[in-house]
Amino acid sequence: MSPDAGGTVASFDLTVNGTRRSVAAGPFTRLTTVLRDELGLTGTKVGCDAGDCGACTVLLDGRQVCACLVPLGQAAGREVITVEGLARDGQLSALQRSFHLHGAAQCGVCTPGMLMAAADLLARVARPTVQQVEDALGGVLCRCTGYRKIVEAVLAVPDLPAEGNAPSEAPAVGQGLARRDGPPKVAGTDRFGADAAPAGALWLRAVRSPHARARFTLGDLQPLYDRWPGLLRVLTAADVPGENAYGIYPHLKDQPVLAAGAVRYRGEAVLALLGDRDTVENVPVEAIPLTWEPLDPVIGTEAATAADAPQLHAESAGNVLIRGFVEKGTPDAAFSGAAAASEGTWRTGFVEHAYIEPEAGYAEPTPDGRLTVYGCTQAPYMDRDEVARVTGLQPEQVRILPSACGGGFGGKLDVAIQPLLAVAAQVTGRPVRGVFSRTESMAATTKRHPSVIRARAAAEADGRLRALDFEGDFNTGAYASWGPTVAGRVPVHASGPYCVPHVRVRSRAIYTNETPAGAFRGFGVPQAAIAHECLMDDLAERLAIDPLEFRHINALRPGDATATGQVLEHSAGLAACLDALRPQWQALRAKAEAFNVTTDGRTRRGVGVGCMWYGCGNTALANPSEMRVVLGRDGRLTLYNGAVDIGQGSATVMLQICADALGLPPAALEQVVGDTDLTPDAGKTSASRQTFVSGKAAQIAGEDLRAQLLRLANAGPEAKLRLADGVVEVDDGGPTRTIELARLSADLEGRGRFDPPTTPLDEKGQGVPYATYGFAAQLAALSVDLDLGTVKLHRIVAAHDLGKAVNPMLVEGQIHGGIAQGIGLALMEEYLPGRTENLHDYLIPSFGDVPEIEIHLVEDAEPLGPFGAKGIGEPALVPTAPAIFGAIRHATGVVVRQAPALPHRLRALLREAGHG
Amino acid sequence: MGVYLRPRALDEALESLAGRALTPLAGGTDVYPAHAHQAAWNGAPDIDILDISALDELRGIVEDEAGWRLGALTTWSEAIEAVASGRLPACFEGLARAARTVGGVQIQNRGTLAGNLCNASPAADGVPPLLSLDAEVELASLAGRRRLPLAEFVLGNRQTARRADELLVALHVPRPQPWAHATFLKLGARRYLVISIVMVAAVLEAADGRVARARVAVGSCSAAAQRLAALEAALVGQPCDGSLADAVEPAHLAVLSPIDDVRGSAGYRQEAALTLVRRALNELDGHRREAAA
Description:
The complex is a heterodimer of chains A (916) and B (293). Chain A is built from 23 helices and 32 strands. Chain A has 916 residues and is of the alpha+beta class. Chain A has a seven-stranded mixed beta sheet with strand order 8-10-6-17-14-15-16. In chain A, strands 12-20-19-18-13-32 form a six-stranded mixed beta sheet. A five-stranded mixed beta sheet of chain A has the order 2-1-5-3-4, sandwiched between helices. The radius of gyration of chain A is 27 Å and the shape is globular. In chain B, the strands form four sheets. A five-stranded antiparallel beta sheet of chain B has the order 4-5-10-6-7. A four-stranded antiparallel beta sheet of chain B has the order 11-12-13-14. A three-stranded parallel beta sheet of chain B has the order 1-3-2, with helices on one face. Chain B is 32% helix and 24% strand. The longest helix of chain B is centred in the C-terminal third of the chain and has 27 residues. Chain B has a domain of 113 residues: 2-Layer Sandwich (Enolase-like, domain 1). In chain B, helix 3 crosses helix 4.
């Protein structure tokens, strides 16, 4: 019996949002299914079906519950309130408005759950404390916000002004405007991948390998069809109409849509069941005629590079997918005679993106022979090309229609569900929908690359860095995915945001029989930063230089050359970030040291610092974005914005930039986001590139349209524009001129294109891989329980040079969320295939794990960027784990070289260090 | 297709149980996740459900001279509220603290103490505090009723003494001595929604400034949570003068048999259990001294 259609169907009455509803379904049916599928209330989200994430929180007789755990049989006769029931007469409640105004909703997929938990609290406690908010909302996980703005939003409800922020005449860039796409997120009306599908769509359910490496054969399927009339079709590798292969790089299409006779990781799709939902979700694995021949899997990069390791891909001898290399100066010679040197080995594990929205969507053939694929994605144009490849269509025959994206963080840069849906729709000629379960999402989709890093560094007596030598092996798992990007990005960044005369970095991406590792916020740079920041602390200690001052001495500044020989001309604000942190650094360090010398307890306090840099956009590859803004003869002004907003806020930032470039308020602009039939290619939402690259394109597009308007009005560059009722008024100081749009012969269209200037890297990795870099430094203050090896964070202070904060509120949201993920990387997150495939064994930070965060924005303008802006998405995460490890070291003297520092690991280090 | 029964009378429920194997369901906080786990790999067994949530006889907390009877449908939230309101005394404070760490409030509002015992996870948050309260379970079947000490009910990882025809209908907690305080400490790698690496529950009864009785249980360190009988014996008669924790010896924890898993190593668990037992006793010792002052 399935919880989605369990028990004998009967009629049940329940009150939902004040209205009595009658539902015909089985009593074991989950309340989530009833609300979403029977009543069309898709505001209640499903993140795990196991009570682990709280996204489905609703009120049942006034108390918060996970709707995924409530049988319809128990909801009958009771009162259910969902997110759709919070607004009154179409007006958002104060709670919803507060979330919107405080930036408490980023991607918005956890937002309904957060709102319902908060509604439960506020009904009992009018003015809750921070602790009460955290206790009441602690059952809902958020992966985007770092929770702080959610707490702020709930605390602010009792005193929320009746009106929102008033329109301002000031430039939009620099204002913390609430997100353009925010109201539907707090209303529960935003449509995510699982929230929409054509009527009559077939359901798709993949059958996945339970083995990490195996051969298999498929027997006769007829008995299966006979036994399950609701099973319309079972797709195999032979059914894939196009190439049964996809991947990120043109020469590395190594991942099959459906495996053909052999699998390379646990979770690889083998078959796709198509039919009605109840059938495809309940065909038991025992009934499926698959015969497995398990083989010894290759686990870990050491095993994969052993002399006797089986070769997993025909083209990759020794299982090495790709190598990266950067060399500057004479690193071998530079180590001799240095005043201080240090070396070590660092290890990090798989990290799961854990976006709260599992992959979901639909594919639908259209009468003109084309195919529409709807779903959550970070890269619509790349999806289009991959869907075309596997279906045998031309790219122009495929339309990618992005849904709201419930978190991405790099994980939705790869296609995962799209090829399956597209192939199924193409083969059957019918619309096909699918939703990954949480376990499926975790087992089947990409992860952060585990790393093994060996590195050494040397410095002069005065603290100047002399040399750094770094070798990193990155476990790319079963398929290439973004492995080459990691192998290419790491060498550029591995010497840190420092001026180092002699550098050598070698990296390798290595195939194994583990979950494919792909893109995850930072593309290998967070792993590398754990190593280089530990080396900085080592050298500072050896030279008896304050760790922050040591970094300040070595910070890359304008005029310095990077490891690739690129001379930074502008916008290298690390030293300014460290200057901003220094007062807190000194005060917090002194306080921690005073505590440690006076305590007789078993707690020690410490403060650490981590620094980073991050090149915005692709590494030494073309990386263009295009934008178009249309002023129609109907008076409508529309930005066609291909940069998908995965919660970070680009759909607001692009409007702010374009509006200022045009000289009209953001409110004058409507927007179409990320529809490949309508929006030009703005590349992928990754690599901290959207504000910098697509934002620049939006600026140019706005300027282009403005120039056309000024020409039509024969006005000077300083003229003020006003758009109302189909008329543009142009005020150039003299009499106001008007342009009646209806009388134009064509719509006006402004276009912008920007491709950041880079050069290819030579055989020693020398060149200009990125047009600009974000810089940051963060402090972590914490205490360590010496007996238990646990860490309690007290405070994070973050200083970020992002050129210009286009929207400071959204920037803070990115920093908070990045820090939360950095905390997870440092202290708790470790994905183990087959063992942590859910959100209770795989831990991401919850409420209460993210301490107070203080932010200093350093705006060292980047001349190439829109209004001086660079990126912030990845820089937010990278320095956090190094700062935490530095603080543990300051507190206890223990040097952490393996992430995450789980309590048992830290306790072992403390014991080794003589802490009893 | 499985059945879904939701009787309103206990007799009816017991008759159903006598006839066929049924999975009792109250708050659903274990049944649905288990199903999702199996369904993820296309293993979706047909299960037959006995929804016991309409059995009013299983509700409520009743006090008599001997102690307290907690109906099997008592949720974590009801336990928290009963302790907060004083309907349950200080010796239940450990149970209330444990309840606040079970999932989020969503789970506490739905999950039941009895369900936690019947699910019998080695990391069940309810078992150590109820062991330290000397709780008994009351089982009913058509054959009659029986009571079992909790330690004889939870037998191992997902193993209980409940026969397939029986339903756990109530928990019974005997009344301790007048001065009895309790605590609960849970060690996990994050703040909320965490499965414990180690947990310790303790109830301390004191008279004349000395330990009259101590009951200490450790969870997540063996297939079923364990009472530390040797330690409890050693504590009797000790003065509550701030030195109680010093009485704890590693040998007192020899009854534990922790394993390595994704949350921690066996050696770490054994050591952390010792630390937490000492901290728990230190806290209760402090309570006693404050009360005396």
